[in-house]
Amino acid sequence: GHVILGLCTLQMACSERYCGRVQWYDVEEGYGFIACVAVHQVFRRDVHLKRQAVGKLGLCRGSEVSFLLKSNLAGEPEAHDVQDATGSTPPTSLAGDRLALNPYATASGAIILLGLRLGPDGKAEPPLLRRAVKAAQLQEATGLPVILSGADVAAAGVPEAEIMKKLLVEHGVPPQQLILDDHAMTTVENFLYGIAIARSLGAQILHVVTSRWHMPRALYLLQAVLVFQGLSEALQVQACPSPCPPDPNHLEEEERLLLSRSTRHLARYGIAPLSQASLEQTVSEIRCLASAGT
């Protein structure tokens, strides 16, 4: 029923514009998702967003956009001819013509690099190495300070933040641009402590660096923390996922953790989970990543 209805909807949608909000969009990778209620009711998933549909439009999480709806090769909804639906300039467009050269340019921002459990020898695993490379590239492009967030979750004798500092310095990031948070044991704590640091720096945009497969759950938890702290409007979020090879196991684990642990980890700090619709959207994003093979 959904497949037939979906195909009919897409065929009828060629000239009709839909409206939605950007869930996340990585400018360098040219990939993200748009949340659209009308599309989600039919497909139970968000809309794929790719660079060729965006052009020079500046996007960040929460940007209101309109788009034409078409089907990709997998028969899933994909946005085309994406346009600003608000008439206002998104936060990441404040740099004007510089946007094409430096899409992350901002007058006041910070980068947060989320840690990952170290190996038993205290060394970074490949996903964390890729996150570090992404953060170093982003720091070089923006000049923004980097918050390194991660405690010694693996009990390896060294906190993740220290290992990340070493990696970023090796990639040319000035040590004075690195701020260590070696207390965060969970993703919720990454953001509780990281937001406090970012706010102390006067940041208005927080660039979140983590693995692509971790990004949907991370943004769900971040939004819950921002709502709890009353900062949803004061602190804009830009997702900057590091690339990762296809691994269905990672995505299955992310969905399991989202459904089984997120509420408990939030409740530990008196933070309410987001709505059921937000939870379902996040699950949909994780499944979209799995179907896209990223």
TrEMBL record:
One of its GO terms (cellular component) is plasma membrane. Pfam families: DUF218. Residues 110-252 form the DUF218 domain. InterPro entries: Cell_Envelope_Assoc, DUF218, NA-bd_OB-fold, Rossmann-like_a/b/a_fold. This is DUF218 domain-containing protein.
